[in-house]
Give the backbone structure.
Amino acid sequence: MEQLSATAYVILGFVRNEPRSGYEIKAVVDNSTRFFWAASYGQIYPELKRLAEAGLIVGSDVPTGSRKRTVYEITADGEEELRAWLRQAPQTFEMRDEGLLKLFFADALPRDEALEILRSMKAQRLAINERLRAIEQMKGEIEDPFPMIVLRGGLEFSEWFADWCERMEAQLLDSALEKRSE
Amino acid sequence: MEQLSATAYVILGFVRNEPRSGYEIKAVVDNSTRFFWAASYGQIYPELKRLAEAGLIVGSDVPTGSRKRTVYEITADGEEELRAWLRQAPQTFEMRDEGLLKLFFADALPRDEALEILRSMKAQRLAINERLRAIEQMKGEIEDPFPMIVLRGGLEFSEWFADWCERMEAQLLDSALEKRSE
DNA sequence: TTGACGATATATCGGGTTGATATATAGAGT
DNA sequence: ACTCTATATATCAACCCGATATATCGTCAA
């Protein structure tokens, strides 16, 4: 087995404690890691097959009536592979923020329209914050503290970001006023 | 012209005030928007041709000796297209953070190894912070305030993130001690 | 009870994106 | 003369995203 993609480890992580179908993995990703590591069906299903072939997970058919369904669980090899990956220093960090991109080029707009970008960005951050809060409410007590730490980190981040937008808006407004009174 | 990709607008934004070659666009992206919107040669060169065909930019051959070189500048249509895009509320926000992903699954490791993830993440944030500081030093005075606002936002973000890692490490250490003294 | 609707389940595909590699010339330094 | 880096463009496999297609299940209201 050569290099697995990070998405493969997402799958290993999610089938570690309970067997899950591809559909369930997608659902749980969309409510958790999606905010910092997304995965689509187009990745999940092929990857499940590859991982099963490599012996890192095993699938079993558990049909619901006449609708077929395969759930996967991790093997001992899979657990070891997951832990080995966790021990390596994280590399990838990527961000694509259309808001920051527009703000970067905002000089092409009249100043009042430029400020509107910051207001949109703030609204976007607050919307994310609410989604995360809803997820936080859903979660019961669990002994594994890490998912909650990450979730709370997301909450703090969205709050910091919203606040930054607000401060930058105020700052630009101030500097515009100063200029006028010069 | 149907929907342009956000990367097309990156190009429009960077050829707005001065003519640039594809190579120069890549270089300037790598020193600025790259942290929140990257672009590769594989996107830039084809996109330059599409934009030229659509009349949003115009290219002119400016060879250096016998090495050919095409620089592009924006047209009036291109400027209008860029402004129209800037006026629309930003949508895309994506993040891929292998550190957060590992932290999320860190329960699969012994606690002391899990803490190592937070230490790596903090180091990664501090390294980015230094890169941004180096870029900040390079920039002289310019009348367009937005690139600097975004850069300073990046600095503040990396500081917030590094601090968060530190706090979470301390918190986990504390809770481990409490458990032991129960 | 039938029909509509949303959830479960898997598969596929066009299009965007990445990172690496290939080719070639220019210029600076040793 | 040679080497190394920067400039300049092109290409490609691999990966990833969002949307769509297909089909069954369970539920609830007309």
Observations:
- Residues 5, 7, 38-43, 64-68 of chain A lie near DNA strand D (CB under 10 Å from a C1').
- The two ends of chain A are 68 Å apart (CA to CA).
